[in-house]
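To illustrate the input format used throughout this study, we show a single complete record. The first block contains the structure-token representation of the backbone; no residue identities are included at this stage. The design step must infer an amino acid for every position from geometry alone.
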């Protein structure tokens, strides 16, 4: 398993677009991809059309929900652990 992280304190530098594009492309190439949305504005979740998700990353981290219960399958090989608005 390979883990990558994309972070930058400054907003508006294309982090979400980059992550969504690279994640989607890797899934198209046959890799299993899990994208985890930790953005305060939930932009990665919104990019994939996920607006309200329960459980979400907050419930996993703060309330003891399992990670597996919060993962949303976007396509055959692409999943998102969302953050709710």
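Output of the design step:
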């Amino acid at each position: 398993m390979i883990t990558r992280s994309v972070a930058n304190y400054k907003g508006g530098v294309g982090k979400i677009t980059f992550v969504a594009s690279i994640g989607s492309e890797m899934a198209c190439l046959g890799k299993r991809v899990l994208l985890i949305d930790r953005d305060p504005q939930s932009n990665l979740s919104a990019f994939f059309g996920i607006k309200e998700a329960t459980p979400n990353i907050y419930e996993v981290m703060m309330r003891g929900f399992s990670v597996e219960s919060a993962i949303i399958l976007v396509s055959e090989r692409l999943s998102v652990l969302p953050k709710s608005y």
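Structural context for interpreting the output: Residues 15-28 form the longest helix (14 residues). The mean pLDDT is 93.
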